[in-house]
Amino acid sequence: MSERVSDRRREAVARMLRGGRFATQEELLRAVLREGFRATQATLSRDLARMGARRVSRPGGGTVYEIGDDGPLGGGAARAGLATSVSANRSLVVVRTHPGSAPAVARAIDLARIGGVLGTIAGDDTVFVAPSRERGAAALAARLGELLGVRAARAAAARGAARG
């Protein structure tokens, strides 16, 4: 198959993902075939990987495939309402998400290459974001809250330290 046909198929898949909700590769494959492209599930799987598509949890339950857009976080994480809160203490930002959504949010943050982010660690519904500067957590939390569409709150700093 020529590279031009593959590119056109991937463009069609990207358009479909931006315009609809596909929970499985089988659903998406049926749509690709209806568009007149020849493809197998294995071909579609490779296309999705090459395009950076991912399965994300929906706030109401279930998962769908999505592909990023040109927004600062690829648009998907904020648009899908995956984050529920952002908070920070003096040295760490914590992003809470709907169950199963933390890996997608962490990946979006990593791929966005936001200034001030050293790295992320994702669990199931929590992302730890390490600021690159020791005292940069509050500003970073505010920026992430803005990008993710949630209000950032500052955690009470060192509650236990004062009680010593």
Characterization of this structure:
This protein is α+β, with helices and mostly antiparallel strands. The protein has 2 domains: 3-51, no CATH class; 76-156, Gyrase A, domain 2. It is built from 7 helices and 7 strands, in the order αααββαββαββαβα. It has a 5-stranded mixed sheet, with helices on one face. It has a two-stranded antiparallel ribbon with strand order 1-2. β3 (83-88) and β4 form a beta hairpin. It is elongated and about 55 Å long. The model is unreliable at 156-164 (pLDDT under 50).
Please describe the structure with a list of short key phrases separated by commas or semicolons.
single chain, 164 residues, alpha+beta, Gyrase A, domain 2, five-stranded mixed sheet, 7 helices, 7 strands
Quaternary structure classification: single chain
Mean pLDDT: 82
Low-pLDDT segments, ≥5 res: 156-164
Taken as a percent bin, the fraction of beta residues is 15-25%
Q: How does the overall form come out from the CA principal axes?
A: elongated
What is the element layout, followed by pairings?
Layout: H1 3-19, H2 25-34, H3 41-51, E1 54-57, E2 63-66, H4 76-79, E3 83-88, E4 93-97, H5 102-112, E5 117-122, E6 126-131, H6 137-148, E7 152-154, H7 159-163
Parallel strand pairs: 3-7
Antiparallel strand pairs: 1-2, 3-4, 4-6, 5-6
